[in-house]
Amino acid sequence: MADLPQRMRLHRFHQRFEHVAACTCGFLQVAQLKEVYGFPDSTYQVLKNRFIVDSSKVKKLNVNMATEAELAQHPYIGKQMARNIIILRNGLQSFENIEQLRQVPLINEEKYRKIAPYLVLN
């Protein structure tokens, strides 16, 4: 059983996990927990098999309908990328497939892999 300081740290991490999950519309995989600020890899390694992620509950953003502000709230997107997504969307009239996001300035392959699962077209 964890002592009081350990329980307090775990409680803070739990609060951060909930905040990040709310901002990203949910976790798609357990490994995303490593991205939570201040969560040590050593703690992640001990606890990773105790987490369950249900990716079916992830809320997705409609990239053809979302406002710049809605896109910017997503932690993997941010203000500048949201602005660039909107500029490209306006130029195209609408996205026909998610892969068109690769044309957006600031979206490299790593960013694309992170954001694409959170986006839908309609």
Key features of this structure:
single chain, 122 residues, mainly alpha, DNA polymerase, domain 1, 2 domains, two-stranded parallel sheet, 5 helices, 2 strands, 46% helix, elongated
Strand order of the largest sheet: 1-2
Order of helices and strands: HHEHHHE
Largest sheet: 2 strands, parallel
Strand proportion: under 5%
Mean pLDDT: 80
**CATH homologous superfamily label of the largest domain:** Tex RuvX-like domain-like
Q: Kindly report how far apart the N and C termini lie.
A: 48 Å
Helix content: 40-55%
- Rg result: 17 Å
Account of the protein in words:
The chain has 122 residues and is mainly α. It folds into two domains: 52 residues; 60 residues, Orthogonal Bundle (DNA polymerase, domain 1). It is 46% helix and 3% strand. It contains five helices and two strands; from the N terminus they run ααβαααβ. A two-stranded parallel sheet has the order 1-2. The chain starts with a helix and ends with a strand.
